[in-house]
Amino acid sequence: MKDKFYITTPIYYPSNKLTLGNSYTTIVCDVLARFNRKLGKDVFYLTGTDEHGQKVSQAAAKAGVDEKTYLDSIIADTKDLWALLDISYNKFIRTTDEYHEKAVQKIFTELYKKGYIYKGAYKGWYCTPCESFWTESQLIDGKCPDCGREVKFQEEEAYFFKLSEFGDRLLKLYNDNPEFLLPKSRVNEMVNNFIKPGLSDLCVSRTSVKWGVPVEFDPNHTIYVWIDALPNYITALGYGSNDTTLFDKYWPADVHVIGKEIVRFHAIVWPAILMALGIELPKRVFGHGWILFGGDKLSKSKTALTKECIDPRVLVPLYSADAIRYMLCREIPFGSDGNYSTEAFLTRFNADLSNNFGNLVSRTFSMVKKYFDGVVPECVDSEDPDDIALKDFVKAEVKNVKEHIASLDITKAVISIFNIFTEANTYIQKVQPWAVAKLEGGETRLKQILRLLLEVIRIGTELFQSFAPNATSKVLTALNLDPNSTFDDLESFHQLEAGKKLGELGILFPRLDIKAEMEKLASL
Ligand code: ME8
Fold first, then answer.
1. Which residues form the pocket of ligand 1, taking CB atoms under 6 Å from any ligand atom?
2. Long-range own/partner contacts, residues 129-135 (CB < 8 A, 24 or more apart)
3. Ligand 1 centroid – CA 367 distance (Å)
4. What atom in ligand 1 is closest to the CA of residue 259?
5. Domain of 334: which CATH number?
6. Omega within 30 of 0 (cis) for the link into 145
7. Domain count, the chain
8. Burial class (CB in 10 A: 0-12, 13-18, 19+), 88
9. Distance in Å, CA 182 to ligand 1 centroid
10. pTM for the full model?
11. What's the pLDDT tens digit per position in 292-339?
């Protein structure tokens, strides 16, 4: 049986159109999903939207429509955006889907029956945009510690989840499973900031919020945001319904990928809910860093204010989804914060995609065309030290890429892939095929060189496919390969069929005039 790989994004709030920040997580997960498919795994990639709560009601009211109408338009836009960015999700869950609402009600009732949920009264400082209650001591300068906005004091009858009982079990979880929460630095944050000071019980219902799932046995209350949202990872697989085939097959998740600001919910609240339900825990939670824009976190509210164009809906038609996907994976060191700027994007486009990858492919293809009429030369094994060195280099990087992906480090993985392209370009400069072509009896050597280059391009392109599915699939097709096949004997240097003509390839990434593009983007 194939190994399975279950990966999830956060379910995003459709309180506004999704941003490059939301796209980042979705792209990263897509890279991991695609790579694991290439490894031959049975992948289930889940994404979706978190549709209940005050923020959505407020946004709908502002737009002058009801919640459903409002949500449907944002969700249509979201799905278009994922199509534009070549996101290969297997399922899109909406928390307003009936099966989810029913399953969440069941989960809530079960936790209540088991004694993990009880009725009490909530007093606290409430931040409406973040939908979070804070204690006095958590406030920073009297404002919300997450977003810095005004909070107001509120008191109401509410149900609580006994999170306070789980501290020791969570500490044991982190201790016994050092891979559970990644990057590892996030563990200290959880332990020192939340668990050691003592966990408070979590408010899990509201009477004042109408746009939510009613508590089955007390419909005056709606189920409050996180306990509605987090279970999406299991309800999407049929947990709580009559058909649990997918749940039995894919759970536990191999990784929940999230932004660092919601690690607390995924590494504390979610495992506690699962422990209370007696369900296996996810294998890993990865809290990546933020895309910063001019030093600030890029968020839905700030996107509208920026002058530089950072809307993927505009950038993709101009520069391709491949370029955006590559840029984000390469530029933001996975796990840390990183800056986004138009200039850095365009510079990478030229330096990496056009000059390095694109040029390697195009000059190799044109030499094969020029010297061998575009036909793949047979594989003539060589003992040439330059060839051996290149092969060894490529083999080592293939191993690195696989290891980086296994440890979820997509940035290091894509750097290793580009090392392959750089090395191949250096090899060309060194062995100078154009000079070999002029030598008397140089044909065998020329065949060796070009065949080796085509194989190296094949290997690098196969690896790069998960990052840039479009351009790479064109290259693989032009090499007479099936772009949809899994990795097959990746590191061998005699995979291509000799005697077959290479397909035509246009320019993969046309070189940009950076200044002109910056001006164009600024004028949009
Ligand atoms: O938090 N840099 O939804 P949300 C990197 N509904 N990633 C970013 C980012 C940035 N500047 N901005 C957003 C929610 N993200 C909840 C989640 S899950 C059960 C419920 C990404 O719409 C990142 O993944 O606010 C972050 O965690 C997520 O979008 C927040 O999306």
1. 10-13, 21-22, 24-25, 50, 229-230, 232, 258-259, 261-262, 290-291, 297-299
2. 129/55, 131/53, 131/54, 131/55, 131/224, 131/225, 133/203, 135/200
3. 47
4. 27
5. 1.10.730.10
6. no
7. 1
8. middle
9. 17
10. 0.94
11. 987 777 665 555 545 668 899 999 999 999 999 999 999 999 999 999
